[in-house]
Design a protein that fits this description.
The chain is α/β, with parallel strands linked by helices and 261 residues long. Helices cover 43% and strands 13% of the residues. It has a seven-stranded parallel β-sheet, covered by helices on one side. Strand 5, helix 6 and strand 6 form a beta-alpha-beta unit. 34% of the residues are buried.
């Protein structure tokens, strides 16, 4: 962790892992160094989100920059109910001023997702909006010939373009939660409102011995989830650092290219 995590600009902290002493020690040190910490509610790892009370306890100890409130995957109304209750309870606590809220836009349809995003965008307590990678509903222009990961990437690219058109210059900062394919980052780099993203792709590619090149068109694992129990060696760590560097380089080059035209 100490070798690879600092290679990014943010630290995504899985709340369900913070009871592990080494995990907590690393992120406490990262906070003290001024790193941006996003405290995640663990819903993708656990299948359910940590409760508000559990997150409040972690906020008091860790003092992160952002926190994701409890959420229910693909359920916009229930996610908004939990988010609003979390904010109400947070504002009663002394720690309210020390952490910003990263609300997550969910929905089982484009209409429901849009309603959720609108509610987050107009809530003054929401500082950043998360868009998950696994969009569960079809969007215009998607092809049935594309695999599941390709569909997810296309769907989220549709959503960010939709947000760009709907809000123009008024859109809040967005965080991309997870990643279906690394090439999506290149396509998303045109949106200046996307301020952060998290992904284990460069690391998991290194575990599989995949060496990124400047096209980022590499073998795709079946599931885009990091495996915590994989064995590590120095060669894999070096390859992971290389993959992170290539990813950053490609995105930076694309942004610079767009700025010239």
């Amino acid at each position: 962790m100490s070798a690879l995590c600092p290679l990014g600009d943010i630290e995504l902290v899985l709340g369900n892992m913070l009871l592990e002493p080494n995990y907590m020690a690393y992120y406490s040190s990262a906070r003290d160094r001024g790193r941006c910490l996003i405290l995640d509610n663990g819903v993708m790892e656990l299948g359910y989100a940590l409760s508000s009370s559990e997150l409040f306890d972690l906020i008091d100890v860790l003092r992160p920059s952002f926190v994701t409130p409890p959420e229910v995957l693909h359920d916009g109304p229930e996610t908004m109910r939990l988010t609003n209750q979390f904010i109400t309870d947070l504002d009663r606590r002394r720690s309210a001023d020390s952490v910003e809220v990263l609300g997550v836009a969910h929905g089982s349809s484009l209409r429901e997702w849009t309603q959720t995003f609108d509610a987050l965008a107009t809530n003054p307590r929401i500082a950043r909006i998360g868009i998950p990678y696994d969009v569960p509903f079809a969007v215009p222009g998607e092809s049935e010939r594309v695999d599941q990961l390709g569909q997810w990437a296309h769907r989220r690219m549709f959503l960010t373009e939709f947000v760009s058109q709907r809000y123009a210059d008024r859109v809040k900062d967005v965080h991309l939660l997870g990643l279906a394919h690394p090439m999506e980052l290149v396509m998303q780099s045109r949106h200046t409102f996307i301020r952060s993203h998290d992904s284990s792709w460069p690391v998991m590619a290194a575990v599989r011995g995949i060496n990124y090149d400047e096209t980022l068109m590499m073998e795709v694992p079946e599931k885009p989830f990091i495996k915590w129990d994989v064995p590590w060696n120095d060669g894999q760590a070096q390859l992971a650092a290389h993959n992170v560097a290539i990813t950053r380089q490609v995105i930076k080059s694309d942004i610079e290219h767009r700025a010239r035209f």
